[in-house]
Each structure stands twice: as C-alpha cells, then as structure tokens.
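Technical note accompanying the year-one report. For the benefit of new consortium partners, we illustrate the data format agreed upon in the data management plan: each record pairs a sequence with a structure-token string. No post-processing was applied to the example shown here.
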Amino acid sequence: MADTQAPPIRPEFETKPGDAGHIGDVARPLSAWERISNITAVRRLFILLVLVSAWQAYAQFLDNPLMFPTFAEAMTALWDASVRGPLLERIWTSIRVLMMGYAAGIALAAVFTTIAVSTRVGTDFLSTLTAMFNPLPAIALLPLALLWFGLGIPSLIFVIIHSVLWAVALNTHGGFMSVSETLRMAGQNYGLRGLRYVAYILIPAAFPSILTGLKIGWAFAWRTLIAAELVFGVSSRSGGLGWFIFENRNQLETAYVFAGLFAVIIIGLLVESVVFRTVETHTVRKWGMQR
C-alpha cells in the first residue's frame, strides 16, 4: 500500500491593512463649476449665448439691417410688436385656429383608431389611408382647401386636420398593437370589457406612443398653420402669426420678420416644455414607463 503523504501545514499569519491615504478620496466633493455644468438648463443657456454672440458679431460685420439685422434689433422689434403692435393679437388668432384644427384631428384619429382595433378590415382601412395620405404634405392640399372652403379659417382647419390626423392615428394604433398579451389577459381576468377595458388597460399601456403621436401632430399642425397663413392666412383683415411675418416681409421690415419667427419658436418651446413635459411627468414617467 503506497504511503500517503499528509499535506504541509501552513503557518498562520495576519495582515494588517496599509495606509490608503495616498490613494485619494474616491467620493470627493464637486467643485462649484462642476455642479453648475451638471445642470442641463445651464448648458443649454450657454449654447444659446454662444449662438447669440455669433449672430450679433456676424450682423455687425455685415452691417446690412435689411438683409440680416442684429440680435438686439430683432429683440427690440419683438418688444415693440408685442407692446405697441399687433403681434399678441396675431398670436391669439393663430392659436385659436390651431386648437380647433388640432382638436378635430385628434377626434377623427380616435374614431379611425377605434375602427382599426375593432376589426381586421378596420386595420387594413387605417393602414391603407395612412400609407396614402401620411406622406402627402398638408400644404399641398391648400389649393383644394381654397376651392372647397374659400379664403378663411375653414381652409386652415382643413389642412391642420390633415397634418394631425395621420400622425396621431398611426402612433395610437401602433401603441395599442404593442400592448402585451399579459396585460390584455390581466384586464380580462379582472372582468374589464368595452370602454373600461380600453380606459384601464389599453390607453395606459399605449400612452407613450399616444403621447408621441400628440407631440408629432402638434409640431406638424403648428408649422402647417404658419405656412398656410404665409400664403393666404388673412380673413376680414385679421390674419395670424404667419400673416404678420408675410406683411413685414412685404414692407421690408426684416427685424419684425425675425420677431415673428421668434414668436413661433417661443410658442413651440413653451408647448413642448410646459404642456407636454407636464403631461409626461405625471403619466409615463410617474408610471415608470420612461426614463
């Protein structure tokens, strides 16, 4: 029988931790500059200041207010048109028309989507119409709108509905189709049927897609309205924001043209950062569906 050799006995030892002070503090406090630069609003404000400085410098170098006014001149024109001019009235006219067309487009999109999720023929119907009309620019329907509805608000509402309808319907239908079978079966197990099933299961689960469609529809509607008003957006001597830009272009008031463009941008930023951001914070982010 072969001799078995016992494993060697290792001596016990104890190691004391060394001094790690020379390594440095891992969680060091941030400097004031690092804390400020981590704020998104500060970084965006810095970018805007750089762009404004470049604009001001180039306009002063060009020295031609008719072609390219300075930023200060554009801001002065914006203040003057808002306080003493018709800019606020024109903005309200555009927003009023926009809300009518936007609401009608959303209502039609809800009807089309309801038909599409109810039957297979409805799905084919919506898919066919979306493929046909979604790539068609709303402004291309302007001649027909003038022929059918005449010069005025109904024509504007028609082109706005076209720009809103297909984006909202397509995203809403896509959101409903992406709801998982687990959620569908959970709603059915709770006895939800009909409108309660749609309200408590389908809409919350598909709301990120619905909100995306509403954002896209708003952006399409806003720029379609401004473009349409640039062409014919005046009725009974009360035009909108696009007509304000067109008027000042004809009068060679370039600074006021930039003031109108600023108003378009500011309204778009306010709707995006206040209205839609508030809805997003209290819905999809609160529900943990979006980071």
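Partners are asked to follow this layout when depositing records. Residues 194-232 form the longest helix (39 residues).
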